[in-house]
Amino acid sequence: MQTVYPILQRLTIVLTLSLIAVSFLFFSSPKACSEPITVSLSPTIDSRFNMARSTIVTNLQDAIQLWNDVLPETELLRFVETDGDVAISFVYDERQRTTIQNERLKRQIAEQKNQLTTLKTSLSTTQETYEARSQEIQTKTSVYLKHVDEYKEKVDAWNEKGGAPAPIYEELKREQLALEVERLNLNNDIANLNKLADTIKNTSGKHNTIVEEVNQKVETINETALREFEEGIYDPNTKTIVIYEFESPLSLKRVLAHELGHALSVGHVEGKDSIMYPYNDSKTFELSESDTKAIKTICEK
Ligand SMILES: [Zn+2]
Description:
It is a single chain. The protein folds into 3 domains: 1-28; 29-97 and 228-300, Collagenase (Catalytic Domain); 107-224. It is α/β, with parallel strands linked by helices. It has 6 helices and 5 strands; from the N terminus they run H-E-H-E-E-H-H-E-E-H-H. The chain starts with a helix and ends with a helix. The site of zinc ion (ZN) has 5 residues, from helix 5.
């Protein structure tokens, strides 16, 4: 019996303490909309984010302003230099590395698409030339074969007569020489045509390689791109926002506005342009009707 008392006592003490803690938390949480939630930014930002702290502050102030513009005369959020109710920090990790890598891939893809356009143009020009030359050669070949036949007929005719007189023999010799020149010219044309065919083959091979490379890069981007607002996290227990990645000042502003929305107790809403939509794909920076409706509902409570 002697040991029971201390334990019970301790239990009571623990219970009382936790009750106090809970009520303290309850009363200290800022009442939504009646007074601004202050927001501060960590004093140092990892240089690998490639953005000056002052620039981040400007973007943060834009994100704050977005929410403050909803209700006239009601300041929902306020930027403070230190010790805000909500503290924002930036953590550089795999996510931002992936984003930077994908940005590089996107630039390469754009460059390669230009290359493909150039290759396609030169390919179709070369193909047109090829078609035209091949047509020419076919015509020239049939003309040549006709000349050969005519020459043979003449030679056969004279042979049947037992031979040609000297002047005709000379003329036939000249004709034979002319035919030889015609044949050499044709062979030369055919060699050039084959060179063109090689060029076409090489160019289209190059084209296909680039297409394959582009497809691979697009696949990499699709596999690794972060679509969800996992670029940032708001933790309601510690009242902290951590930003992990952004690909442009616009996406940074959007992710800041999104996490600040959560800090204002706004949940996710519909509409892909909404700041509180679960995915950060939009290129706009304004609150949608669903966003404003959500915050107004919270403020009216
Ligand atoms: Zn969210």
